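**Archive record**
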Amino acid sequence: MNRSALTLALLLFLTACGPETAQEQSVQVPEIAPVEADPKRGVAWFDGSVDEAFAFAKEKGKPVFLYWGAEWCPPCHAISATIFSKPEFIERSTLFVPVYLDGDDKDAQANGERFGVMGYPTMVVFDAEGTELTRIPSGIDIQAYANVLDLTLMAASSARSLVEGLMNGDDSLTENECSLLAYHSWGQDSDMSEDFDLRDGFRRMYEACPVQLDAERSILYMSWLDESLSTESEADEPLELTDQQRYEAIRILESILTNPVLTRANIFRVVIDGPKYTSLLTEPASVRRGELTSAFYKTLDSIAADENIYKRERIYTLVGKIGFERINDEAAELSTQLQQEIRDMVAWADKSTPSVYERQPVINALGNVLYAAGMDDVAKPLLLAELEKSKQPYYFMVDLADIEQRAGNFETALEWLKKAHDSTRGVATRFQWGQYYLIGLLEMTPEDTQTIQDTAVALITELLQDSGGFYQRPKGQLKRIEDRLLDWGAERTEAVSDIRQSVRSACVTLPEQDSTCEAFLEDG
């Protein structure tokens, strides 16, 4: 099933489409201390429904800060540890109507679909009238986050209206407008991606941004470069860069790597995407490739050693190094030196992270690094030990199942997937982990028709018991289940027919959503 690969791909996607850190006025940053960061502690989150929150905001003339997350989500733990627990955020939250929406809350998935959110965590700011102003990326430090909140309080225009203006011929932005666009979470804004040509849009933003805003301009330029080099799907056509554009890209990359402020402003791109940029912008064995590779290594080492940088980002420097060692051969064996560096990082991060809450993103990052490195022998004992420490151990059981599946231990892998599903709570979470188990059955025991039928029907029937089940994340997961079942059922038409009939019989319990339910497996 390979969730680790999906996690890394998503991380790369988010950092490619939206800034993951922010500008600072100086290199000094707030010290990050290990805290038991309860996401609801300190902030007076609105007690009521989303609609009631918007009505209250309109009455009081306050903007709305909407957070959409989940208790198991590693980036959600990180945002709680680095942002929600900090005085700078808590103080500013009083100027907003803060809404905390857990993905398993009543109507949470319906609201997720309503606002077009794409994943956990998503943070959206609306004005008092309910107009969306911006989406804030995760992974930025507290000072940058505070600056973005301040910008929304002063914003005369939304991010969307600014983009519309630029696409219609506006050629300049104020400092505040440029900052709002630079720190918009493009990777979690499907409507913007669908409505605008962001490759052209990012270039326009970069050129319209005041020249003194070095960090914002670097973020917008790198967003343009990512869009230009993107091949996310077969329909994407990467831009064929001219020699002048390649020179420009290398020059800006080198300026980012040699300036700590710009490095922090583009930190996920720096720690993860260096091999991609180097491969696409330089020729193999060229002097330019050697120089750019050396510059990246120097910066990666600096980030890894910087105690003021959040631990997760320091861990991910190893993903960049893995990519560089395999830049010419994806299957290349890692050097003994890098393997030892990875082991040392695992030991340090594990030992130096006592907070149960902060461990979720840290252990997840370590797991992703070890997956990328192919070091399952190190990952397995780390994850097994974490089951005794984590408040959401089911999250790591899926990674253990992946390890066993890669080793060919299918029975053990399926035991982990079933145990993980049985350990979950909440409609959306249970369906997601049930999806993992069902896909595992399809991949590892496709001949076990009865278990697959029973699991599929039970999973969807349970989802039907919730009025908000067929929205957003579960809706997308249901489509993935449908596609996998149809592939599996190409030679098992009777089994697919039985599943379809059982599900449709249960659809009568939700007449308002029978169109989604009734359509399940209709192509089978």
